[in-house]
Amino acid sequence: MSRLDARSIVVTRPERQAGALARLIEDAGGRALRYPAIEIEASGSPALDAIVATLESFDVAIFISRNAVEEGLARVRALRPWPAGLAVAAVGAGTRRALEAQGMTGVVAPEGPADSEALLERPLLKSATGRRIVIFRGEGGRELLASTLRARGATVDYAECYRRFRPATDVRPLIAEWTRGGVDAVTVSSGEALANFAALLGSEGRDLLAATALFVPHARVGDEARLLGLGSVQVAGPADEEMLAALVAYFGRAG
Fold this sequence. Notes:
alpha/beta, Rossmann fold
C-alpha cells in the first residue's frame, strides 16, 4: 500500500513553485491537485536599485523567503557583484538552501522553527547595535524582524524585490470534485495564501474547506485558519519534505 494511498491533496503554492511538493505527493502514492492561491512577480523599483547599489555599506543581509532569494539575487546580479564580506542570514532552512544553491556560504539560519522569532535568537542578530541591516522581502509583510532589530540599535532598510497577488484561478472544477468527496486535504504556504484560497472558494467552497484537513507551515498560520473557522488544522513546517511527512503521518493515523 502506498503511503498516501491515492489521497487527493490540494497544492496552493504558486504555479512555478508547486512542482516539487506535487511530485513528492505523487511519489508517495497520492494525487496532487494544483490550484494556485498566490502568485509572485518581480518588482523592480528605483528604491530597490538604490539599496542594491549601496550593498557594501551594510553589515548583514537577511532573506525572508525563497522568493526573496530568487528575485533579490536576480536583481543584484543584474546590476553588480555581491559584496565580499556581507554576512547573509535566512529565516529558515529552505531559504538557507536556496541561498546555498546560488553559491552563498556561511548562511546563518535558525536550527529549529523557521520564523523571524527564531532568527532573532541567533548570535549574529542578538547584538545589533550600530549595524546596518538590509532585509530582502516582498512588498509588505510582518514588521517584527525590522522593529526588533531597530530596538536593538540597528539601522534597517528593506529591499522589496517582489510582489504577491491573488491569481484568477478557476476553482469550479475543484469544488465539483470536492463535493463528490474527491479531496482529502489542502496545503497552504502562508496566511496570505490561505486568505486568497478562501476568497477564491467563496461561501460554498469555504464550507468544504472547513470540513477538510488543512496543512499549514507555521503555528501562526494555524491561528489565522482558526479565525476563519477552520478546525482541522495540522502544523507541518515550511519545507516540502516537512509537508509530505505531516501528510503521511496524518493519513497513517487516519488509516
